[in-house]
Design a protein that fits this description.
- By secondary structure, the protein is mainly α.
- The chain is about 80% helix and about 0% strand.
- The longest helix has 24 residues.
Length: about 110
């Protein structure tokens, strides 16, 4: 179950990071409230995950999911550039996430 909590936390991190764009510096009430609630939910899920997983592994995977997912969301939603260098770096992050998962015996 800790891995499921961690994946949910990572997906929620993507959602709140995208929400920051829509909140426009927290000047728009609805998106700002939604973003803060998504942040709290993400942190809560991460807290559940670290009950059964090593902290370092959990945090690294959480931020990795968030980083790659947010970069992809930026490409898809905001027409950010999908250069070869950006995509290669995302592949390296995913490789690190997979490596941490395989190296963690829980």
């Amino acid at each position: 179950m800790p891995w499921i909590w961690l994946i949910i936390a990572g997906v929620l991190e993507i959602a709140w990071a995208v929400g920051l764009k829509y909140a426009d510096g927290f000047t728009k009430l609805g998106p700002s409230v939604a973003t803060v609630l998504l942040m709290l939910a993400s942190f809560w899920c991460l807290a559940q995950a670290v009950k059964g997983l090593p902290l370092g592994t959990s945090y690294a995977i959480w931020t990795g999911i968030g980083a790659v997912g947010t970069a992809i969301a930026g490409i898809v939603l905001f027409k950010e550039p999908a250069t070869a260098a950006r995509l290669a770096c995302m592949v390296l992050i995913v490789a690190g996430i997979v490596g941490l998962k395989l190296a963690t015996k829980v």
